[in-house]
Amino acid sequence: MGHLQGDNIIDDTLRYKGYLDTPDLWTGSLLNLRQFCFIDKNNLGINDRTKFMRLGLLTEQFFFKKLKSIPGIRTIAKNLQIIQDNKTVGEIDCLLLMHNMPIHVELVYKFYLFDPAITGNEIDKWIGPNRNDSLNQKIKKLTEKQLPLINHKKTQEIIHSLGHNSSSFEQGVSFKAQLFIPQGFDEKKIKLLNRKCIIGAYIRLNEMNVYADHSFYIPQKLDWLIAPHSDVKWLSFKDCISVVQDQHLLKRSVMIWIKSKTSLKKCFVVFWN
How far apart are CA 268 and CA 253, in angstroms? Predict the structure, then answer.
């Protein structure tokens, strides 16, 4: 059985750069969700070893590291669990002061693929690589559960104990994403989202034959953040196909890097039709 690669990419500086270089999924507001924007874009050295951290937690860590580099911003609370009657009601990702303005920010970093076959509008057609989640579902969760949590009685009590009034908080999201479209799809058809988020394409296993003379790398999930580079251990076409087939049996789509003599690119090989 083939194995996923990625053991030789440990440097979190590359992951952090990948996070910073990921554009916001939209600018301004989308479906009443206001994007929280950084003004500053200084780079930071990252020394933390995060080999066993989940990708979502890692991107949250990067968000808070970024905050520390921006003058005029102070974190009030992060990952604030709201517990009532010994039950967790939810969690507030971030409360901050930006030039003394209190802001509640929910943090999102996603990988979405555009499936034109899905019925509905443009937003409905963006799904996770394994079809377990979607942009539409995430927006619904943000608008109906995560952002309204600030109005919960227990949340109000906690915020009051921190010296603030929950009603004074502006709300927004830091929603970053890497987008992938079908190979050959005209990206100009994407109207509602930031097309700068389109990182590459996705293909089916039988479409890989056109890359038979290329080299391949399969990053571990934490390294999905990273832009492809040449300093990795490349696989042959045969070895890559073996790993992809094994993952497809588990109903997992696979991110791969593809190298030719003149280019490097990132794409997903999906298990679904």
Answer: 7
Q: Give 203's strand partners.
A: 269
Q: In this structure, how many other beta carbons lie within 10 angstroms of the beta carbon of residue 117?
A: 7
Contacts of 178 (CB under 8 A, 6+ apart): 22, 110, 111, 112, 197, 199, 224
Please check whether residue 58 is in contact with residue 104, taking contact to mean a CB–CB distance below 8 angstroms. Answer: no
- Digit-coded pLDDT (tens) for 3-31: 555 544 456 888 999 998 998 999 888 88
Element (H, E) at 258: strand 254-259
User: What single-letter DSSP state applies at residue 137?
Assistant: H
**In angstroms, rounded to a whole number, what is the distance separating the alpha carbons of residues 123 and 173?**
17
Give me the residue label for tokens 């910073």: 20
For the chain, where are the alpha helices, taking DSSP H only?
12-21, 55-68, 135-141, 153-161, 237-249
Q: How many residues does the chain have?
A: 273
The answer to whether 126 touches 114, Cβ cutoff 8 Å, is yes
Structure tokens at 209: 């034959």
DSSP helix/strand/coil, 113: strand
**What's the predicted TM-score (pTM) here?**
0.89
Q: Which residues pair with 78 in a beta bridge?
A: 94
pLDDT digits (tens, 9 = 90+) for 190-218: 999 999 999 999 999 999 999 999 999 99
Task: Classify residue 42 as exposed, middle or buried by CB count within 10 Å of its CB (0-12, 13-18, 19+).
Answer: exposed
